[in-house]
Amino acid sequence: MITQEQFDTELKYIISNAIREDVGDGDHSSLACIPDNARGKAKLLVKDKGIIGGVNFAKKVFAYVDKNLKLDVRIEDGSEVTYGDIVMFVEGSSQSILKAERTVLNAMQRMSAIATKTKTFVDLLEGTNTKILDTRKTTPGIRVLEKWAVKLGGGENHRFALYDMIMLKDNHIDFAGGITKAIEMTKEYLTETGKNLDIMVEARNLTEVDEILKNDGIYRILLDNFDYEDTRKAVKMIGNKCLTESSGNINEATVRYYAECGVNYISCGALTHSVHNMDLSLKAIK
Fold first, then answer.
1. In which element (H, E) is residue 72 found?
2. Cα separation of 12 and 130, whole Å?
3. How far apart are CA 167 and CA 66, in angstroms?
4. Which listed residue, 76, 136, 201, 269, has the most CB atoms within 10 A of its CB?
5. CB 47 within 8 A of CB 83
6. Alpha-carbon distances, residue 129 vs 145, 198, 256 (angstroms)
7. What sign has the CA pseudo-torsion 134, 158, 189, 235?
8. Residues 89/58, Cβ–Cβ less than 8 Å
9. Helix, strand, or coil here: 150?
10. Cα–Cα nearest to 278, from 115, 113, 114, 78
């Protein structure tokens, strides 16, 4: 994954762009009917159940909009919530609260949904040695928020983007002219550029697993769309030579069975691309 510095930079981009997109040249609804000096207080209300996510992101948004806003957080990131819970109170300029409202809610609703879905998978894997991973199947522009939410739900992050791990998938292999050639060219590239990146290679069948294993320096083998029997065989073939990962339409009904085949990781795009936002609202307190 990316460094803390890169993580913080991504957050700054997201916040500034979200406020630019939503506010433009001004929140004219608020400017039209709320005096500049008006002060107010609001509560962030849960109207659903699951795992809350985005509390710390909300702090950053409110501070970006108005550093004088005061927050009273009652429920922290990663906590279980249910209908009627109050996550936080925010107090200060009424105009500032309204300016930040939609960015805070949009982010928290999605992050909470992702954290909740991830927690479901984590619970299904309880008692195994397998970790659940996210993927790059994220919403363009807010990947760092969605991967952050996976961590809040108890999952692990896969590579962040194309630049922090070598991942030779089927198309790379086919375009390069085969597994061994792709690996050899990759090692040459890393030597020439001086980059220190782990190499992960996708296998489509047991024959490809065998070929990958003939090459040294592989960090992890991705077993893509393997059935349970072949997954068990592949895990036995690989042993301790490198780490293993299963992927390919794995869902709540099948994830436990793949874990019991002995893989180290299971990656699931559904953690980020197939969630229903948690229902949250920001309500003024009269």
1. strand 70-73
2. 33
3. 42
4. 201
5. yes
6. 26, 22, 11
7. negative
8. no
9. helix
10. 113
Please answer whether residues 197 and 220 qualify as being in contact, where contact means their C-beta atoms are separated by less than 8 angstroms.
Answer: no
Nearest to residue 108, comparing CAs of 85, 92, 136, 125?
85
Token pair of 257 as six digits: 């069975």
279 is catalytic: no
Q: Is residue 169 flagged as an active site residue?
A: yes
Q: Please say if 224 is a catalytic residue.
A: yes
Q: Which two tokens stand for residue 135?
A: 């993927």
202 is annotated as an active-site residue: yes
Q: Name the active-site residue from 10, 77, 101, 202.
A: 202
Output phi, psi for 43, to 5 deg.
-120, 145
Please give the chain's pLDDT, 286 residues, in tens: 689 999 999 999 999 999 999 999 999 999 999 999 999 999 999 999 999 999 999 999 999 999 999 999 999 999 999 999 999 999 999 999 999 999 999 999 999 999 999 999 999 999 999 999 999 999 999 999 999 999 999 999 999 999 999 999 999 999 999 999 999 999 999 999 999 999 999 999 999 999 999 999 999 999 999 999 999 999 999 999 999 999 998 999 999 999 999 999 999 999 999 999 999 999 999 8
Residue closest to 261 by CA, chosen among 217, 220, 214, 229: 229
Catalytic residue check, 136 = no
Contact (CB, 8 A) for 146 and 114: yes
Say which of 60, 136, 137, 232 is annotated catalytic. 137
3-state SS class at 265: strand
